[in-house]
Amino acid sequence: xxxxxxxxxxxxxxxxxxxxxxxxxxxxxxxxxxxxxxxxxxxxxxxxxxxxxxxxxxxxxxxxxxxxxxxxxxxxxxxxxxxxxxxxxxxxxxxxxxxxxxxxxxxxxxxxxxxxxxxxxxxxxxxxxxxxxxxxxxxxxxxxxxxxxxxxxxxxxxxxxxxxxxxxxxxxxxxxxxxxxxxxxxxxxxxxxxxxxxxxxxx
Length: 203
Prior knowledge:
The chain is mainly alpha-helical. Helix content is 62%, strand content 6%. The chain has nine helices and three strands, in the order H-H-E-E-E-H-H-H-H-H-H-H. The protein has helices at 4-14, 17-22, 53-56, 61-77, 85-102, 106-126, 130-145, 151-168, 176-189, and strands at residues 23-27, 35-36, 47-51. A three-stranded mixed beta sheet has the order 1-3-2. The radius of gyration is 20 Å and the shape is globular.
């Protein structure tokens, strides 16, 4: 059994600086998953990350480290506001909606709101594809290199964490995305020569 308080302090220390700024670790013994984080919302700066420490204690320490770093990398990797077309359309749509409401132009407000909604949906989807999941794994491995792990070991520990978490949570099968992640990690760890095809990274 792990005492949550010292473990939280330890995990905060291995986080990258961006994780310590935005991610808040919460003990949640009632949740059915080992670790959980909601998709970040653009209006919330804090990005909570909850852990069931009873389940967490069943993972070896290296797997805990990599699972934590991976979740933090995913949370901090979600970007809502970037200098691109979709973000520009969201901003233009929001401003346009406000202007049209102030001017009492219902049709203009609906049009501008629809533009903002459409662009926002595009950003949402771009942050939830397989490529983002694989990027989060690879970013976690890069952080782990600065914490004393080798690339191959970090990939093996993260691979083990994915499989162990599924077992601990009582899941008999991995999801499609988890299978892709496992294949990519096997390639990074040197356990397989097969890499994830570019077409499948966009799923």
